[in-house]
Each structure stands twice: as structure tokens, then as C-alpha cells.
Design a protein that fits this description.
The complex is a heterodimer of chains A (about 100) and B (about 180).
Chain A (H helix, E strand, L loop, with lengths): L5 H24 L6 H23 L7 H28 L3
Helix pairs in contact in A: 1-2, 2-3
Chain B lengths: L1 H13 L3 H27 L1 H8 L4 H21 L6 H33 L5 H30 L3 H27 L1
The chains are: A mainly alpha (about 100), B mainly alpha (about 180).
Membrane topology (chain A): Multi-pass membrane protein
Main location (chain A): membrane
Keywords (chain A): Cell membrane, Membrane, Transmembrane, Transmembrane helix
Chain lengths: ~100, ~180
């Protein structure tokens, strides 16, 4: 059982919904204004923030074992780094 | 490396749910490999991947993200230390129902995308897309059914186990969504 309070979970869920909405708005409205490389990087960072909230608040690892917390946090961070590397590679390859 | 593994085992043992975390980490590794394969394939054939992505429905996927986040919130509410059995049951059932709605939306999405999968130029994209998202939706269906089973027979250890797995499913979707649909 996790020691989270109802209020903390509501706050975490609200933040997640706000981040998901910001993501949708960015993808829907920003392409004409923000260069694709930066837009993609922002979208990846937003997903990283959502992943962090799920791990720390929903899984209750904010106060959990540090090694377990960092092992789980490493997974989205590695994939985010790989995705940004892919975006940068394609950006350079396209002469951007 | 050996010392790190020992520390991880000790940390997990402290929380008395070592096998849950082993399962979570092995699932994350499996999905990590699939997503890495998707990224590599996208680097090899960026034009075809960009074109194929135009046939996806990011709007439906965004709706699914909100559903899964809300479902995860309900699962976390069920796993609170001081939740009553009634609160646990209600939260678990709600989490499961949202999981089933996620599945229905995903199937609607699959149905509209199936006709593009036959195209030779989009083959690599859609093969990986259906493998990754299909594997994920199977996890959602299975997880939602177990959530209902646990709601029927709630017990603290069972709730801790299924909610940890449910959050892992949530986490995988959060990470795969922008990689597959957006960037």
C-alpha cells in the first residue's frame, strides 16, 4: 500500500491532464510558429514530465527506495534521449 | 554491477514486493527494445515513416492518453493505505472501465488504419506500429480484467500488485505516444 493522500493524487492527476492538454495544444497550434526540431523536443520533454509524475506519485516512489526510483526514471529518460538523438540526426541529415 | 544488483534487490525486498518490480522492469525492457527498434527503423526510412504517420489518429490517441491517466489516478486512489474496501472497489472498477474504453477507442483506430497497412511503402512502419501498440493494448485488456477480479476480491497485496502493473502500462503509453504518433 502506498502512503499517498487523496489530495496529492488529485494534484498529480491535474498536472498530468494539464501536461497532456498542453501537448495536444502545442501539436495542434504550434507547427506554423515553432520549428519542428524544437517542437518535437518540447513534446518529448512534456512526456518525460508525465512519466516522472506517474513514477513518483502514482507508483508512490517519491518516498520509495532510491535505487528503484532511479531505475524506473532511467527508462523514460533513455528513450527520450534516444528520440531526441533521432530527431537531431534527421534534422542535421535534412540540412536543417 | 554486482553491488548495484544487490542494492536493487535489497531496496525491493524492503518494500516486500520484489517480484512485482522484477516483472515491471522486464516489461519495460521488452517495450524499450520494441520502441528502440521503431526509432532505428524511422532513422533508416524517415520519408516513409513521416508519410505513414499522417494516416494515424493523434486526436484519438490524445483522448486515450487522458483516459489512461485518469484510470491510473483511480488505481492510485485504490492503493492508498487508508482507503476503505468500498473506496478500493469503486476505484478499481472505474480504472478497469476506463481501460476497456481505451481498448474500444484503440480498436476503432486500428480499424481505420488497417487499410494503409497493406501498402508496401508503409510496411515497416505499420508492422512495428501494430506490434508495439497491439502488445500494449493486450496488456491493457489483461490488466483491466485483473483490476475487476481484484475489485471482486480486494486484498492489499493484490491491489498493490495490480496497480503497480497498471501504472507500468500507463507509463509505457505516455512514453510511446509521442514517439509513435508525433515525432
Amino acid at each position: 500500500m502506498v502512503t499517498n493522500t487523496s489530495a496529492r493524487l488529485v494534484k498529480a492527476w491535474s498536472l498530468l491532464v494539464a501536461l497532456a492538454t498542453a501537448n495536444a495544444l502545442l501539436v495542434g497550434l504550434a507547427p506554423g510558429f515553432v520549428p519542428p526540431f524544437y517542437l518535437s523536443s518540447i513534446v518529448i520533454v512534456l512526456s518525460l514530465l508525465k512519466a516522472r509524475i506517474v513514477i513518483l506519485d502514482f507508483l508512490g516512489l517519491r518516498a520509495g527506495p532510491a535505487l528503484l526510483r532511479w531505475t524506473l526514471l532511467a527508462w523514460p529518460m533513455l528513450l527520450a534521449a534516444a528520440t531526441i538523438a533521432k530527431i537531431a540526426f534527421l534534422h542535421v541529415h535534412a540540412g536543417g | 554491477m554486482h553491488r548495484e544488483m544487490e542494492a536493487l534487490e535489497t531496496a525491493a525486498a524492503d518494500t516486500d514486493d520484489f517480484l512485482v518490480w522484477v516483472l515491471v522492469l522486464s516489461e519495460l525492457a521488452a517495450f524499450g527494445i520494441l520502441i528502440a527498434a521503431f526509432l532505428l527503423a524511422a532513422v533508416r526510412d524517415p520519408e516513409s515513416f513521416a508519410l505513414a504517420r499522417l494516416h494515424l489518429s493523434p486526436g484519438l490517441a490524445t483522448a486515450n492518453t487522458l483516459l489512461l491517466l485518469t484510470s491510473g489516478w483511480q488505481a492510485a486512489m485504490a492503493a492508498r493505505r487508508h482507503a476503505t474496501v468500498r473506496q478500493q472497489r469503486r476505484a478499481l472498477v472505474f480504472a478497469a472501465l476506463l481501460g476497456f474504453v481505451f481498448t474500444i477507442i484503440k480498436l476503432v483506430e486500428f480499424n481505420s488504419e488497417m487499410r494503409f497497412a497493406a501498402s508496401a511503402s508503409f510496411n515497416a512502419f505499420f508492422e512495428l506500429y501494430f506490434i508495439i501498440t497491439g502488445f500494449h493494448v493486450i496488456h491493457v485488456v489483461f490488466g483491466a480484467m485483473v483490476l475487476l477480479l481484484v475489485a471482486w476480491r480486494p486484498g492489499n497485496s493484490n491491489i498493490a500488485l495490480i496497480t503497480a502493473l497498471w501504472h507500468m502500462i500507463d507509463l509505457i503509453w505516455i512514453v510511446m505516444f509521442p514517439i509513435i504518433y508525433l515525432v
